[in-house]
Amino acid sequence: xxxxxxxxxxxxxxxxxxxxxxxxxxxxxxxxxxxxxxxxxxxxxxxxxxxxxxxxxxxxxxxxxxxxxxxxxxxxxxxxxxxxxxxxxxxxxxxxxxxxxxxxxxxxxxxxxxxxxxxxxxxxxxxxxxxxxxxxxxxxxxx
Length: 143
Prior knowledge:
Elements: E1 9-15, E2 20-21, E3 26-27, E4 53-74, E5 84-93, E6 102-105, E7 116-137
Antiparallel strand pairs: 1-7, 2-7, 3-7, 4-5, 4-6, 4-7
């Protein structure tokens, strides 16, 4: 995989022991206005080439029951104001959260209208004693 190592890397070997959002949250540019109009333009990512995103376990998880990964957008960087969930992995059992496990998001949804975009890692069960993730926009996903 080729990860974009600048602004489109959500997590870079981020330790995930409790529920948390990705270390990096992407901020889209604020929408401008057309001359002589008060209302801002609406964000429209539009059709085009699919933009793949990959979440990969870099350190095996231990002691939690499962992990759920969601792609979310919101009005603030903490992903807490008017948050919208665009994609969910569903609960992934700890037995499957081994180093090298890949959870691909085939393409970013085009209905992202909020200013901030990031990932939320939701831990179920006890606090994890180990586990890390790398996630970000990639050039392509191996099949």
